[in-house]
Amino acid sequence: MTAQNTEPVEPASKVELAPGIGGGGEIPSYDVTLRVRRYNPEVSDEGHWDEFKLTMYGTDRVLDALHKAKWEHDGSLSFRRSCAHGVCGSDAMRINGRNRLACKTLLKDLDTSKPITVEAIKGLPVEKDLIVDMEPFFQSYREIMPFLISSGHEPTRERLQSAEDRERFDDTTKCILCAACTSSCPVFWTDGQYFGPAAIVNAHRFIFDSRDDAGDMRLEILNDKEGVWRCRTTFNCTEACPRGIQVTKAIAEVKQAVLNRKI
Amino acid sequence: MAVSTEIQAPRSGRIAPEYKRHGRSKGNFEMFAWLFMRLSGVVLVVLIFGHLFVNLMVGEGVHAIDFGFVGGKWADPFWQVWDLAMLWLAMLHGTNGVRTIINDYAEKDGTRMTLKTVLYLASAVVIVLGTLVIFTFDPCPAGAAADLLPSFCRA
Amino acid sequence: MSKTPAGTLYRGREGMWSWVGHRVTGVAIFFFLLVHVLDTALVRVSPDAYNAVIATYKNPFMALLEAGLVAAIVFHAFNGLRVILIDFWKKGPKNQAKMLWGVVGLWVVVMVPFLIRHLTLAFTGGH
Amino acid sequence: MQVHKYDVVIVGAGGAGMRAAIESGQRARTAVLTKLYPTRSHTGAAQGGMCAALANVEEDNWEWHTFDTIKGGDYLVDQDAAEVMAKEAIDAVLDLEKMGLPFNRTPEGKIDQRRFGGHTRDHGKSPVRRACYAADRTGHMILQTLYQNCVKHNVEFYNEYYVLDLLVLEEDAVRADGTPFKQKRVAGVVSYDLASGEIHVFQAKSVVFASGGVGKVFKTTSNAHTLTGDGMGIAFRRGIPLEDMEFVQFHPTGLAGLGILLSEAARGEGAILRNSEGERFMERYAPTIKDLAPRDIVARSMALEVREGRGCGPNKDYVLLDLTHLEPAHIDAKLPDITEFARTYLGVEPYTEPVPVFPTAHYAMGGIPTNIKGEVLQDNDTIIPGLYAAGEVACVSVHGSNRLGTNSLLDINVFGKRSGINAAEYAKTADWVEVPEDADADTIRLVETVRNANGTERVAQLRKELQDTMDANVQVFRTEQSLTETLNVIASLRERYKNISVQDKGKRFNLDLLEAVELGFLLDMAQVMTVAALHRQESRGGHFREDFPDRDDVNFMKHSMAYLDETAETEHVAGIRLETKPVVFTRYEPMVRKY
Ligand SMILES: Cc1cc2nc3c(=O)[nH]c(=O)nc-3n(C[C@H](O)[C@H](O)[C@H](O)COP(=O)(O)OP(=O)(O)OC[C@H]3O[C@@H](n4cnc5c(N)ncnc54)[C@H](O)[C@@H]3O)c2cc1C
Ligand code: HEM
Ligand code: SF4
Ligand code: F3S
Ligand code: FES
């Protein structure tokens, strides 16, 4: 960098703003058709598609469209959501055929000339509309003992860990347990017994944590016939992960860790 | 503790697909199977490409294949070992691959068992038969028309 | 208990479709192999029997089938190597999509000369 | 009526609830009832850090931390509580580390610390590195780590169980000085199972409220859709007072219209705020430090620009955060997250376009009053045996009138732990309080009334109108007129609320119904907030009255306590009684708050 770049230049007190930013201009609005896969066993055992024609604005997200449909058209439309900015993991769903978070998917990034299809994630039992039973998912998560286990007596202060050791498992600490990955996995769809990428990601987070002493136990668990070996490297999980976690890579690392331990 | 009520733990019984993972699978079978797929895969690339090349590309290609061609090849222990290795590796690799697929898609335990039994039987038969053929093969069977046989039979 | 309403096809990308391809070709090759070992076993019965069966293979239709089979094997083989690289090479997972295009490229490179030779031989007839 | 029996029932599985559950779960039979799956709680959204005077990177001690907290809260802080929190902060962080939280590390491998607004060495001499952090995901890591440890200790969760009522009985009792009074006793809670629509009663010796904040009374908020003040509302409806409800923290830079937080670091790196005329307006309000003035001043200045018609956008309702003069490389290196938020959510490219921002409702300083043991108070000094509260729902009060950044994640850990331990210890010796025959009657009535509501008003519409008025009138600027106007609007909304329609009549996952119930809590809380704000004729911390711009220690150096009382009337609002509670002073005398 040159010297003049290191000192931030004092910006002007007043600048010309591009038209449309400074006010006055309308936020662009557009019409979208939302096709939602509805299912309510209280009413019928059959699912069906519902279409909502909605006028949406500028940077509205799929979640906003769902809200609009629910709040202005059909209050019985059911879906989970909370944080609305991609950090809580409530609203993983299948948007135009792929798993995404509704709150992180802008309508304008989708092709709004065609209906936008929204369905529940695959492989977990649908309870109502876009709501699935998450229990099998969390069951797999709990199975891999997702907590720090350390032998030896507790130090009085914190355990030491080098910055590199901390970096080693950084990627997999980002998981928000949204299930976008597991429910995008063709192997998980088959019989639902596969542990699934999310459980492996969370095991990875501890297996590669230098403070943890139970890596072997977790590797043993994932050496199960429903464990890592069922992964067929289809990468749907990696592509679905809203946190950008390199899921398949984490799984590969766990596979190698099991191999190294056994051989 | 005085708990008088009969209510299930949260969400229990509502779990579906039913959670059937109790009881760890024994040993490292899946791991070795996985490893075998990769190792055999690498070797098979060489074996199969060699096989295809010699059979389909060299000389007259596919048209050259007849009893004489095969006989000629298997008179050489090199090709015997080659084809034997290819047979075993490909069959084991393929059988394990199909086993995986059956595990994936056959959901009922019964179906799974049946399909796998059929698979293992078929594979066993083919492997045994193939092995026998390669080892007990006589390139110059008595009584066969000489022009069908590999050239060295006439010698 | 509750049944999952049928939905649309999952729109997977390179990784998923290559896996579908790998699986389909794998099964196809397996069944071919079963037949192939059996027909080859005829050499043990008699040269005539073997040649008779092999002769029925020597027509344009079978040549096309053979070409398909080779195409399947070549894809399966190259993609298998890709999968192995994903498993064992540090940068494999990151480059999986690129490697798939590599597989497809190699597949074309191998298949074009093979098809030219195989199909000309098949249709112009040897012997 | 289905009755479950637990020693301890915890309402809410955010940071505070799970920290309590970890302690309580190891000591007594504990159930955690939560309307969200635990990992969906909004604690996970916190970014910055959690402070403790670990002195890992530079000299620091808990006494300085106490001072900063008290000064930051504009002296409305109960100093005994602040002392407890600052002292126990160190263990709170170390506990989390031992539970597995992946903190960022110093080169020596210790927990790294960084600076944060208002945290200083030696009583304001210079900024100090006190915030422990895990990248910009500290809240996420805390939430995950606590959940992991709940899994480890086999804590029983009842996920998607909405607590809608608290079972409190009143007994005649006499005070030490001989005066008779009604002692409240807690018997349990009543909850609604989202999946089945069934009502479940949980009998418990101890109940811990940890149900988080109430940000959704505002339109622009960094809070989740689900933060609707249920816990506060339930307590209030059962005659428990709410303390200091007028104090809400507004963070200056939330993404306009969305409220998603953009950290202060942006302005630290040189970003500036502009109005519709392209003017760097902070030059007028704070000529020397300009855009880096304290949060409340910046927030107020922004609101003023918009109020005076210099807002941007079609509705002229936001200002712009301009980063375009910064090098893209510099932005990438220092502000990757913020820029990602701007791109994802507003479709704005911060390299070339200014980002629309507006103050966003961030944190409720007030809540259910507790003492430093986490015990809930039914008046200024009578505890309700067995009832505890912790986290944003509670008011201990460590934040006074303005919370310092990173003190909330600390609060939930320190007081979550304390209330968990105390609740379990209490349950060991206490007797069950009999659950009344008709314990679930009120809840069934509430739910069924809403389910059968066939009126003409849409819940979403009422909520929107409420949020719009709250944003317009009870935000960073408040005047007698704006607050009175809001009370009128709320009164009419409450009237219209009686005529709502709920379309989903089913039992299964009926979120339509629950949104209507939540709106009921929002309306109650908005009213309490506004009444308290109208009553407090001074400006202090997060509460700024244009008509009373100065702090008034003579008349208002005390907590406000709002009670539901049919017979009372405050500021022309029937049903609310406003009292005060003295602030606890230990060693710091109020001074002018100046940095
Ligand atoms: C964007 C953002 C950034 C922040 N950054 C920081 C920071 O850097 N540092 C800091 O110290 N603080 C920060 N805060 C503040 C801090 O994160 C919160 O105040 C704190 O996490 C609140 O925790 P809690 O446990 O009280 O509530 P929450 O985490 O909100 O949990 C509430 C729980 O209650 C449950 N619940 C609610 N209602 C009911 C009901 N009726 N029945 C049953 N369960 C119910 C919910 O399911 C949930 O589990 C930030 C806040 C926000 C919004
Ligand atoms: C030419 C060299 C070959 C290579 C490099 C190769 C490689 C591989 C690899 C690495 C796998 C594992 C894929 C995974 O785990 O996701 C695999 C699977 C499989 N292979 Fe091969 N293979 C070859 C030849 C064969 C042959 C000859 C057959 C048939 C007999 C075959 C049938 C299968 C089957 C059925 C599967 C299972 C597919 C699945 O589970 O999706 N392969 N192959
Ligand atoms: S790994 Fe990614 S996709 Fe999977 S649960 Fe975690 S955050 Fe969601
Ligand atoms: S989608 Fe499934 S197959 Fe493996 S790479 Fe991901 S877990
Ligand atoms: S609502 Fe929280 S992730 Fe989408």
Automatic annotation (TrEMBL), chain A:
Residues 30-124 form the 2Fe-2S ferredoxin-type domain. It comes from Arthrobacter hankyongi. Pathway: Carbohydrate metabolism; tricarboxylic acid cycle. This is Fumarate reductase iron-sulfur subunit. InterPro entries: 2Fe-2S_ferredoxin-like_sf, 2Fe-2S_ferredoxin-type, 4Fe4S_Fe-S-bd, 4Fe4S_Fe_S_CS, Beta-grasp_dom_sf, Helical_ferredxn, SDH/FRD_Iron-Sulfur, Succ_DH/fum_Rdtase_Fe-S. It holds the Pfam family Fer4_8. It catalyses: a menaquinone + succinate = a menaquinol + fumarate. It comes from the Bacteria. Keywords: 2Fe-2S, 3Fe-4S, 4Fe-4S, Iron, Iron-sulfur, Metal-binding, Oxidoreductase, Tricarboxylic acid cycle. Its cofactor is [3Fe-4S] cluster; [4Fe-4S] cluster; [2Fe-2S] cluster. Belongs to the succinate dehydrogenase/fumarate reductase iron-sulfur protein family. Residues 1-20 are annotated as: Disordered. Its EC number is 1.3.5.1.
TrEMBL record, chain B:
InterPro entries: SQR/QFR_C/D, SuccDH_FuR_B_TM-su. The keyword Iron applies. The chain crosses the membrane at residues 31-58, 78-98, 118-137. The keyword Heme applies. It holds the Pfam family Sdh_cyt. Its main location: membrane. It comes from the Bacteria. Keywords: Heme, Iron, Membrane, Metal-binding, Transmembrane, Transmembrane helix. It is found in: Membrane. This is Succinate dehydrogenase hydrophobic membrane anchor subunit.
From TrEMBL, chain C:
Its main location: membrane. The chain crosses the membrane at residues 20-43, 63-85, 97-116. Coiled coil: none annotated. Its cofactor is heme. The keyword Ion transport does not apply. Keywords: Heme, Iron, Membrane, Metal-binding, Transmembrane, Transmembrane helix. This is Succinate dehydrogenase, cytochrome b556 subunit. It comes from Arthrobacter hankyongi.
UniProtKB/TrEMBL annotation, chain D:
SUPFAM superfamilies: FAD/NAD(P)-binding domain, Succinate dehydrogenase/fumarate reductase flavoprotein C-terminal domain, Succinate dehydrogenase/fumarate reductase flavoprotein, catalytic domain. Pathway: Carbohydrate metabolism; tricarboxylic acid cycle; fumarate from succinate (bacterial route): step 1/1. It is found in: Membrane. It catalyses: a quinone + succinate = fumarate + a quinol. InterPro entries: FAD-dep_OxRdtase_2_FAD-bd (IPR003953), FAD/NAD-bd_sf (IPR036188), FRD_SDH_FAD_BS (IPR003952), Fum_R/Succ_DH_flav-like_C_sf (IPR037099), Fum_Rdtase/Succ_DH_flav-like_C (IPR015939), SdhA/FrdA/AprA (IPR030664), Succ_DH/fumarate_Rdtase_cat_sf (IPR027477), Succ_DH_flav_su_fwd (IPR011281). Its cofactor is FAD. Keywords: Electron transport, FAD, Flavoprotein, Membrane, Oxidoreductase, Transport, Tricarboxylic acid cycle. NCBIfam families: sdhA_forward, sdhA_frdA_Gneg. This is Succinate dehydrogenase flavoprotein subunit. The lineage of its organism: Bacteria, Bacillati, Actinomycetota, Actinomycetes, Micrococcales.
